[in-house]
Amino acid sequence: MALNEDNVRSIAHLARLSMTDEERGHYTEELSTILDFVEVMRSIDTTDVVPMAHPHHATQRLRPDVVTETDQREKFQHQAPATEDGLYLVPKVID
Amino acid sequence: MQWETVIGLEIHTQLATNSKIFSGASTAFGAEPNTQACAVDLGLPGVLPVLNQEAVKMAVKFGLAVNAEIGMRSIFARKNYFYPDLPKGYQISQFELPIVGKGSIDIRVDVAEPKRIAITRAHLEEDAGKSLHEDFHGMTGIDLNRAGTPLLEIVSEPDMRSAKEAVAYARKIHSLVQYLQICDGNMQEGSFRVDANVSVRLRGEDALGTRTEIKNVNSFRFLERAINFEVERQIDVLEAGGKVVQETRLYDADLDETRSMRTKEEANDYRYFPDPDLLPVELDDAFIAQIQTTLPELPDAKRQRFMADYALQETDADLLTASREMADYFESAVKTSGGQAKLVSNWLTTELTGRLNKEDKSLGESPVAAIQLGELVRRIADNTISGKIAKQVFDVMWQSGESPDEIIEAQGLKQITDEGAIEAMVDEVIAANPEQVEQFKAGKAKVMGFFVGQVMKASKGKANPQQINALLNAKLKE
Which of A35, B35, B55, B197 could connect to A2 by a Cys-Cys bridge, CB 3.0–4.6 Å? Predict the structure, then answer.
């Protein structure tokens, strides 16, 4: 298997996902199957293939540097669980 | 043991656009919290980032100025991590295929020969918001005005070998981005942020030692101190038989030390992947050529020209080209002065700079404009006033903002060049001081200074010193 349960535990932590032991076993197997398939694809010679950055064959449109947004703080903060002095409040984060 | 310091810098420059990198919200500094954070910046569902063309131009401008390979095709990636001032849970940045590739810049540290520092890459990304940890009933306040502000992160190779070199490089980049007018360079407001990767190794070794990353440095002085502290710390650890731990350390200016951030012992894994919301950016030759035409004269070229055209010493040319503002001020003043480059350079680098430093002002805030300083120098050069009186005039200019001619006229400071008037004063001084005249005649040449001083005093500093000297010489030797 490409992954063990510890790998899945740390991936889940990075993504802030909680899961039961049973789920972890399940995901370890499922994700490993995907990675095994990646191994299969790796055996193909892709030397001259440009990596795909996006499925569309289009390029990024650029926007003129103009301020178009107005202040809608009140509207946005109406939906926030906690605000004060114009700030969004979140549980204390200490670096 | 002989240790060698190895430093590489990551510099985040805030690009001077009007709107954000992916949204039309304003980037102006100092607005009320969250009044410049729109739906895109807040990462609300259903929004789509659209790239700011000016940010791309500015990045390319920088790339051209450091002779870098420009990424004709560059892509944006998501850098994933959780922090409340990053509402989307990822920062849009560039990982593979940055907009600016390998380039270089030359620095000078106490030697005539420049040292070339390689630039690994420079990429576009969005800034995060700000967390305010002051007390909000045990909560943290989040201001997202800064979220989405365009940054150009400039990454150097580990080419620097001392804190001094690191500072010289950082200053050079700082000056360059301001020359290019792509960043205001304000370190206090966080428009120019420097992180240093520092390691040490035994001299002669090829492999790099384990590095630490120093953050939270908001001045060049602190950058030098922080690196020096960190180098000493690492050497102490290694000499005591320990190992340097790869970690991020914060510089504390009050205690003059770096401290571990003590984040959980867990490798950061940003799980970069191409952002599906943004298409690859493709540039064409015409776009690059157009930007090339907007490049100003760069610091190194200007320095060479100043030395050649104005016959300036290297040190003066360095000072005068350190910022575009300074260089422009100098050239404007020289023009008004009638080409008195050396004199303008002296006044600018000593008198004016000294006064600005004393009052903690920038050149832009100087009460004496370039044209006024040029006029003052012109009046010295054409003998309207002496250098000594000029300092008096300068004082008044500084206080009142009046032009030198107005001040000279109003206060009657015009230099006395009337031979007869000076001669009368010389005669008076000689007559009043027979003792000193005897001393002079007995061969005590130093008394000459006394006489010059007395005549100057009699003229209230206005007599032409060359004429005083000539007259005194002639009369005392009679």
Answer: A35
